[in-house]
Amino acid sequence: MRQIALSTLFIAAIALFTASPSYAWDDVGHKITGYIAWQRMSPAAREKVVKILRSAPEDSHLSTFFLPYGPQSDEAKKLAYFMLVPTWADIVRDRTFAVRYEKYHHGNWHYDDTFWKLENGKVEFLSGFEEGGQAVPRLVEFEKVIIDPMKTDAEKAIAIAWIAHLTGDIHQPLHTSARVTDLEPKGDQGGNLFQLTPQGTPRDQALNLHWYWDSIVTRNIPYDNGFCDDEYVKSIAEAMMRAYPFEAERAKLTLGKYPDWQTENFQYAPTHVFSPDLKRFETPSDEYRRKAYRLAERQLAVAGYRLGETLNNVFGK
Length: 317
Ligand SMILES: [Zn+2]
Hints:
With 317 residues, this protein is mainly alpha-helical. The chain has helices spanning 2-17, 27-40, 43-53, 74-84, 88-91, 98-104, 135-147, 153-169, 209-214, 216-220, 230-243, 246-249, 258-266, 268-273, 286-315; strands at residues 114-119, 122-125, 177-179.
């Protein structure tokens, strides 16, 4: 069974590290969101959601992530499964599974960018750009699917997987931001064009601002054994829930108001992401990294709460 678990993670790892633009949170970030959501979900919601996910279309491979064997309790198996579900939308980026890729991968669903520039120290919003991403309209659409009694469980499974992923994505400020500069007149693609390594660094060693933020959790808390296991994810997620308890965040969750979630996360782009100490072609300071992590902690906790409560509202009764 270990082998199956590892191969699943391996597929996920390949999907994540053959990195291309517009990834949001690495698999650690998405698993944290899944873990926190699960803590909020009622027994009824957990039962229903797992049952629906396991009815996913076979060609999506979504149901195969559930590992029914092994010594763990049923509850632990369901949690391990649910933590993988938010990573599925990145796993389907893998082109070696051509059918799955063609049918389920949608690059522009992972973000919803506000175009902006800094003019005399002030944020100026810009319009007229072609592609700003689809995350918000997709969240709206998929919520309609999961509440619709006429939809099949197979349709709802895909909808839940996307909601689980996009709820996480939209809490990464660089998935809501396209900064326009003289160097990036069409926008910086969520910081993908903003390099943090010196000019001329070979592509496979280059680091850009987008990936820096996606992987901010492991930058601050590296794997203790070189491997991202669920215990590692769990300990980080628990710390985030202690730092930002549900009761303190509850009033701000604005469930179903997806444009507001986008606005909330965008506001951190000019202040926390492109803070004055950030320099192109330079490694951000330790202070910048710690500040970025503090923001990510809160946003991941809130993303988990929002996901859990959204699923509770639909499936918890
Ligand atoms: Zn994504």
